[in-house]
Design brief:
Low-confidence stretches: none
Shape: globular
Number of helices: 7
CATH superfamily: Ribonuclease H-like superfamily/Ribonuclease H
CATH architecture: 2-Layer Sandwich
Strand content: 15-25%
Number of strands: 6
Number of domains: 1
Order of helices and strands: EEEEHEHEHHHHH
Distance between the termini: 44 Å
Radius of gyration: 17 Å
Structural class: alpha/beta
Length: 209
């Protein structure tokens, strides 16, 4: 595995093929308070590219071009958060999208464990370490442990997408999954506008306790 760190943007001409695995690291999970710190990318070849963002300008034309390319599928785990953060800070609209968490929820109905660690353990026999999950991602100098952790979040997404797509087809749920993926941009827009904790499809539209 090779992990390459880029400051501010990816190099021009860096090719991820027709599908790129993407994850983000922020200082927290608030769409209002916390800034985008890292963007992790992989073409599924066992290597990862990590972009350490300039949090003052987010001037990254090459990364934005990749994320906005309709000819490249963007694979996420829990795309709802990543798409919202990338839309907010980079101003990009991303299609098409595949979310392994949504796909898992549609086909692994025998469990309520749909985290990336759970998926990798069951479907790939890979035991991911989450030791660096709570970490200072805004640090100017990232440790090797941080970089390895960040990379691990994208290295297996292509394999998971392939396995979960086969199960979606088997259960005749691929179309509903695609509809969910297509709705993500709207769901994220609602989150950013303040409806994150409100189900607008509910009759009473109550906030959760």
């Amino acid at each position: 595995m090779a992990v390459t760190l880029h400051k501010g943007d990816i190099p021009a001409g860096l090719d991820f093929g027709n599908a790129v695995a993407i994850d983000t690291e922020t200082q927290g999970l608030s769409l209002i308070r916390d800034k985008l710190c890292l963007v992790q990318l992989s073409s599924g070849d066992g290597n990862a590219h990590i972009v350490q963002m300039d949090r003052e300008s987010y001037d990254c034309p090459n990364l934005k071009a990749l994320l906005s390319d309709d000819g490249v599928e963007k694979i996420f785990h829990f795309a709802r958060f990543d798409v919202a953060i990338l839309s907010r800070d980079l101003g990009v609209v991303m299609t098409p999208v595949f979310c392994t968490k949504i796909a898992s929820g549609l086909v692994r109905t025998y469990t309520d464990r749909h985290g990336l660690k759970d998926l990798c353990k069951e479907l790939l026999s890979v035991d991911l370490s989450k030791q660096q999950q709570s970490s200072d991602w805004a640090s100017d100098e990232l440790t090797k442990a941080q970089l390895d952790y960040a990379a691990s979040d994208v290295l297996y997404l292509h394999q998971l997408r392939n396995i979960l797509t086969a199960r979606l087809i088997r259960e005749d749920r691929l179309d509903i999954a695609r509809n969910c993926f297509d709705f993500l941009q709207t769901r994220c827009a609602l989150d950013l506008l303040g409806w994150e904790g409100v189900d607008i499809f509910s009759h009473k539209m109550r906030r959760p306790d």
